Amino acid sequence: MRMHRKPHLDERLLACSDILTSPDLSDKNMKRAATVKDYLDIKKIFNNQNPVHLEIGCGKGKFALEMAKLHPDINFVALEKISNVIIEGCENLKKTDIKNVHFLNVRAEVLPKYFPEGCVERIYLNFSNPLPKQSYIKQRLTYPRFLKIYKSLLISGGEIWQKTDDRGFYEYSLQSYKEEGFTILSTCEDLKNEPFAGNVVTEHEQKFMDMGLPIYRIVVKV
Hints:
The chain is of the alpha/beta class. The protein is built from nine helices and eight strands. An eight-stranded mixed β-sheet has the order 1-4-3-2-5-6-8-7, sandwiched between helices.
């Protein structure tokens, strides 16, 4: 079902420009666009040099905002490609006094445009679209082309924390990490019954747990 464009979206995005970086849409070729560097000035954005954590596919931003409150000494960049969705996170952030979150309204393919190599301590992939059809495999966020991007952005020893409700996507991702040379630190096939300290439950996670569905988790490092 097609999502209706939110009223006055452009004006609302502009009003959030202090906490939101919007895409340069001059080049529709994502691979080529990623080579034209326009790095985020992390020190200027956050006014510090704290470690950077990146959430890819942040949706409405609940996870990033909750994590930021728990970890004020970490800078969180929350990426979401859909403007209609990210605006809710931006406007929710502006209602708070949280200073360690910045939103990025771009596709994951162009991350190298905005981040230099070796600058991110941790990446979160929370309930990414599993895209089960084989014809969409190259668009999965744990497909090798994306893992190569993440590997380049992460510091030595940097980690990826992934959660999903989809068994097939969990197994596919686990295999992809192994094939791309990541070290598997931990796996979990029922997060509700094997919780970990400091877990921030996303909207999707709560919904699926209420339905009695297992939540899968993978932690890997470079």
